[in-house]
Write a structure and sequence with these properties.
The protein has helices spanning 13-20, 23-32, 60-66, 132-158; strands spanning 3-9, 36-43, 46-54, 69-77, 79-80, 86-96, 99-112, 115-126. By secondary structure, the protein is an alpha+beta fold.
Length: 159
């Protein structure tokens, strides 16, 4: 099952993008997730965030393999989409015991009436024989949690 999430915001795509590429917003997002920022680089419309993300709440079958936190790196590089919005490839990676966990796809911010519709589509892959498919389901659930918390933070900031 793919990752597919849509949210709407009462602001222009430019205003939403300004928050998604704001260093303080990214730090606040990490805090809302209970994660510690290990590295954060913002260069124009490109961001790289490396977090020590807590693993509390992951299915017990995987908990024994990952410990209390895992290092997660997220890259975003936003471009104009030609229709008044913005797009970025979705690129999130973690390594757990030498196995790559990756979320890839696309994020779009498009004008929607007087606001913005944000869509996130993608796939989770886990390079782990035997448990890969089950682990991918857990990763998709975690992506959903991250997007919901980010959505709450964006709504508070945008009013």
């Amino acid at each position: 099952m793919p990752i597919d999430s849509t949210s709407s915001y009462p602001a222009t795509p430019d205003a939403v993008l300004a928050l998604l590429t704001d260093e303080q917003f990214l730090r606040d997002r990490a805090a809302a997730l209970g994660a510690q920022v290990q590295e954060l680089t913002v260069t124009g419309r490109s961001t790289t965030t490396r977090l020590a993300a807590p693993t509390a709440g992951i299915p017990p079958v995987f908990a024994r393999f990952v410990g209390s936190s895992v290092s997660v790196t997220e890259h975003s590089s936003w471009t104009l989409d030609g229709d008044g919005g913005h797009r970025s490839d979705l690129d999130v990676q973690a390594e757990v015991f030498g196995r790559v966990v990756q979320v890839t796809g696309e994020r779009r911010l498009v004008p929607d009436g007087t606001g913005t519709r944000s869509t996130v589509t993608g796939e989770a892959t886990v390079d782990a024989p035997l448990i890969g498919r089950q682990a991918e389901g857990a990763v998709r659930e975690l992506v959903g949690v991250v997007l919901r918390r980010e959505d709450e933070l964006l709504r508070r900031r945008l009013g």
